[in-house]
Amino acid sequence: MDANSTEPSPQAVSKQSKRPNLLKILGPGLITGASDDDPSGIATYSQVGAQFGYSMGWVMLFSWPLMCAIQEISARIGRVTGQGVAGNLKRHYPVGVVYGVVSLLVVANVINIGADLGAMGAALKLLIGGPALIYVALFGLASVLLEVFSQYSRYVSVLKWLTLSLFAYVGVAFVVHIPWGTVGYNLVVPHITF
Q: N or C: which end of the chain has fewer CB within 10 A?
């Protein structure tokens, strides 16, 4: 290899693995997917499950394909344009529309973060008692400190390993008695309550 060349030598290329390391390629997508299972979502799913039981299962037949389509469209737009939602809005719409949409997104994210912190505080109160508002403040402070003062590579590594906690759902499915006949029936037969 020439001293001024930036291309690797043929020996270096042949030593590279043909198969990528799974732990190295799983990163932002895995963490983002797992983060969608946030505390406010878990609290909502628990409340809906307690109120409606299995009768809302049929909604999944409609909502799941739509969610997949939105994710696919968003990924393709990002891949083709090389920009996120805000960048594409800025490119095709007036500045006022961009600021309006981004402002709505900021408001939605702040509410979602507040709901997440509130759900974590309430869960800790259920476990050990005490004031939920103090727990909310402590969770918020811990999150900010980790985000600001942790090295990105270290923080990502910890978040990747925390995604393993989602296997608890699989464990619960084996431990809890699930009436699969009822689940299957409610998956295909709509039950609408006004």
A: C
Which band of pLDDT confidence, cut at 50, 70 and 90, is reported for residue 139?
A: very high
User: What is the CB neighbour count within 10 angstroms for residue 120?
Assistant: 23
| CA atoms lying within 13 Å on the CB side of residue 128 | 8
Confidence of residue 44 (pLDDT cuts 50, 70, 90): confident
Contacts of 36 (CB under 8 A, 6+ apart): none
CA gap 62, 54 in Å, rounded? 16
Residue found by looking up tokens 């968003």 in the block: 74
Helix (H) or strand (E) holding 160: helix 152-162
**Percent of the chain predicted with pLDDT > 70:** 88
159's tokens: 């978040």
Q: Which amino acid is at 115?
A: A
Mean pLDDT of 64-85: 89
The model's pTM is 0.68
Structure tokens at 168: 């608890």
Looking up tokens 């020996």 gives: 11
d(CA 84, CA 91): 11
Over residues 3-25, the mean pLDDT reads: 60
Q: What is the pLDDT of residue 9?
A: 56
- Residue 71, CA atoms < 13 Å, CB-side half-sphere: 10
Distance separating alpha carbons of residues 55 and 25, to the nearest angstrom = 39
